[in-house]
Structure formats: structure tokens, C-alpha cells
Design brief:
This is Abortive phage infection protein. The protein is of the alpha+beta class. It is built from 2 helices and 3 strands.
Length: about 60
């Protein structure tokens, strides 16, 4: 995964085109670099999975 793809996937998640996004363990560092730069960063919720993957959802209400 490159940063351009990560940004595209975040936009799709934000717009509701996709309901969840699974990020593989090996793609996480690149993905996170793009994620933390988002203005609505706190709206994205990641749930760690066994094996190192993370599933992200977009929430209307930001996490605290």
C-alpha cells in the first residue's frame, strides 16, 4: 500500500462507499502516516485483530 492508495481508501470510508477497511500488518506504518494527517482523524476507529491487522470504521461522533 502506498500513501495515495491509503488516502483514497480513507476517503471511501469517510464517504460511506465502504463500511469498513482492513489494514494488513505490513501496510500499517504507511497507512498510519496518512491517517494521522487527516483533519477528522478522531472520527476513525481502529480495532486491532489477532495477527496484527486492524479494521477501521468511520464514526459520525469523534472519539475522545
Amino acid at each position: 500500500m502506498d500513501e495515495k492508495l491509503a488516502a483514497k481508501l480513507l476517503d471511501e470510508l469517510r464517504n460511506g462507499t465502504i463500511s469498513e477497511l482492513r489494514v494488513k500488518k505490513e501496510d500499517f506504518p504507511t497507512f498510519r502516516n496518512v491517517l494521522v494527517k487527516q483533519n477528522d482523524f478522531k472520527h476513525f476507529r481502529g480495532i486491532a485483530q489477532r495477527g496484527g491487522d486492524v479494521i477501521y470504521h468511520y464514526q459520525e461522533k469523534p472519539r475522545s
